[in-house]
Amino acid sequence: MTIAPQRVVTLHYVLSDRDGSVLDDSRARRQPLEYLHGHGNIMAGLERALAGQDAGAQLSVTLMPAEAYGLRDEALVREVGRHAFPVEEVAPGMRFQTPGDDGPEIVTVLEVRDDAVVIDTNHPLAGQVLCYRVEVLEVRDATRAELVKGHPLPPGTDPGEVEDKKLP
């Protein structure tokens, strides 16, 4: 079956930076990625590269920063009060997840001062060229419940437990 909208794709990938340093490896984690094609579950550039591929396909995809996590924005580096952190010990390099305007956002601590902390709310991979090696394991039609939810459902999910709305 070919990758197309409304289909669930299962794949393994290795994500590396431009220098070849591995950032993530789904096979090493023993956790393939499963996503619903055409529903914005993965980066648009990667989804475009996968469209039309079949189970068994292996491909390499390079995404420029604008196609991945965006360009770095120095305006997203700012100082906040020390009281904004839920833990006593805060050190450079620590990461926290916090609510953002567009959903959860990762905050990286750059510097800790007596009464303030310098943070960076750019995605940790912003500004980086990302290189994917992908192996497509399976392609199947999505269930109605998956289409309603907009993402694959865990195996064994009872479709009756998923709110059923009319699909367009």
From TrEMBL:
**tRNA processing: is it a keyword of this entry?**
no
Please list where the region (Disordered) is annotated: 148-168
Per UniProt, residues of the PPIase FKBP-type domain are 6-90
Annotated GO MF terms: isomerase activity
Task: Give the EC class as a word.
Answer: isomerase
Q: Which Pfam families match?
A: FKBP_C
Write down the SUPFAM superfamilies for this protein, in alphabetical order. FKBP-like
**Localization per record:** Cytoplasm
Per the UniProt entry, the Enzyme Commission number(s) are: 5.2.1.8
This enzyme catalyses: [protein]-peptidylproline (omega=180) = [protein]-peptidylproline (omega=0)
For this UniProt record, give its keywords in alphabetical order, as a comma-separated list: Chaperone, Cytoplasm, Isomerase, Rotamase
In terms of InterPro entries, this protein maps to: PPIase_dom_sf, PPIase_FKBP_dom
Summarize the protein's role. Also involved in hydrogenase metallocenter assembly, probably by participating in the nickel insertion step. This function in hydrogenase biosynthesis requires chaperone activity and the presence of the metal-binding domain, but not PPIase activity.
By sequence similarity, the record places it as follows:
Belongs to the FKBP-type PPIase family.
Protein name per UniProt: Peptidyl-prolyl cis-trans isomerase
Species for this entry: Halomonas rhizosphaerae
